[in-house]
Amino acid sequence: MPAAEYGWNEPNNAPGTVETNPCRGLRQSPEASFPSPEGLTLRPLTMEDVPAMLVLQDQVLAALEDPSWYFPSEEWEFASAVLAGEAWGYFDGDMLAGFAEMTPGEARGEHSYAAKLGLPVAHSFDFHDVMVAPAMRRRGIQTAFLALFATLAAKSGGTAMYATVDPGNGVSWRNFERFGYQVVTTMPAYDGRMRRFYRLALENE
Q1: Minimal CA–CA distance to 100: which of 149, 33, 54, 162?
Q2: Fewer beta carbons within 10 angstroms: which end of the chain, N or C?
């Protein structure tokens, strides 16, 4: 499934380059339209949102059938993603309904998913730390993040998106596959937990 066009500004990239902060153009374009499930609003996350990210992470882990499906992040990791402009959230009023992060492969270096697969890191992006509040499931939030990040990455010169999903988390990996992600391999990741590694080819490939 190709990413939809949502009308945000094109980054001022030279041909063949990757914008290291693909959210920069959106932050400067308050008139841009965003993909949002009905009743929810989308915005970049700030340092003030980090406590809510931690609370939501705890809620999601507590509700999972198997908590090992998700490798939790620490406060400093969420803060780093926010400061780098990599974290976005959907809100129901003032409540954080879901968040996710997208990081350029070059920023993660040897820890990027492309590097772990032995594939080119340049022009790649990693989709990670997606969290949806248990009460907000089945609202299309994860699918909206898939569309948002695929479009952002493509408009920033990216050629591929990568993600990892626990093999047991069928709800999540089926969403990725419906969107067009393809399984590259299944192998240990993080602290040895098995993960399916997914790749989505973007329009620049």
Answers
A1: 149
A2: C
Mean pLDDT of 101-110: 95
CA distance 42 to 30: 11
DSSP 130-190: EEE-GGGTTSSHHHHHHHHHHHHHHHTT--EEEEEE-TT-HHHHHHHHHHT-EEEEEEEET
Contact (CB, 8 A) for 102 and 86: yes
What would the pLDDT profile of 28-71 be if each residue is shown by its tens digit? Answer: 443 345 668 889 999 999 999 999 999 999 999 999 888 888 88
Burial 47-59 (b: 16+ CB within 10 A, else e): eebbebbeebbee
Is residue 97 within 8 A of residue 132, CB to CB? The reply is yes
The per-residue pLDDT for range 8-31, each reduced to its tens digit, is 223 333 334 344 555 554 444 433
